[in-house]
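Late entry, evening session. Most of the bench is empty. Finally got around to the prediction I had been postponing all week. Sequence below, unchanged from the version circulated by S.P.
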Amino acid sequence: MKDILESSFIKEFCRLTTNMYRLGWDERNGGNVSYLLKEEELKDYLDLTKVIRKIPFAGVHPTSFDATPLAGKIFLVTGTGKYFKNVELDPKNNLGIVRIANNGKEAELLWGFEDGGRFTSEFPAHMMSHMARLSVDPNNRIVMHCHPTNLLAMSYCHPLDEASFSHTLWEMSTECIVVFPEGVGCLPWMLCGTDTIGEATAAKMKDFRLVLWPFHGIYGAGKDIDEAFGLIETAEKAASVYNVIGSRPILQTITEDDMAELISLFNLSPRWDFFKEEKYRSLAKKK
């Protein structure tokens, strides 16, 4: 077998967590990432018949949470209580590769967590989001949760309805409506690490790839690491512009006519119902 630490997926994952820590998105042991791997990616690195130990899911109701739709799927995932700043230095203890068991109630450890650790407490929420995203996009492979400073700050001082929150971000940067034309989903504050917030996030993930947890952070999903990271990065940049503007009067901005030109140029399918002008909102009514 080849050295798994030399694999492209481990190296890319380590770069990701290092960058997330460097940007201040994942202080202390905050944040978590799960990456759906393909068996063909792993066959040269792991004996997939060898299960190190089984890890039950925590923080969810055993009778209500069921991960059997993901049975047999394999994920690279960050560990609970682990610091992102340490992942690149010590992947074997800070990361794990797990396969969802057939009973949907536990995962089989195939590699990692060598210090006896386990996957993030948010892993059930990740699985719910993976199931939701895969139902609308079979190419979705990554779910990422972090605490970007400016999106976190914005959740305190901006209305949390999805239309206005998304519209404001679209106005802050030309790239925003191109990168996330569906907008940003918003939840009320909820207790993290439970199946309740996992279910609510997953429900939003059917319509959005970005879901805001007010006063906490954001969930992002995508077909690969670059897409999910880029989604959060773009929204966070827009939120930073919003926060820099503060209470100063806005004299000019990206108009909805400007947004419509971008939509036409990039052949996008945006949330027209998030627009303010009736001539654009009426487009949503026709669908």
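Two things to note before I forget:
The first strand starts at residue 32 and ends at 37.
The mean pLDDT is 93.
Will write this up properly tomorrow.
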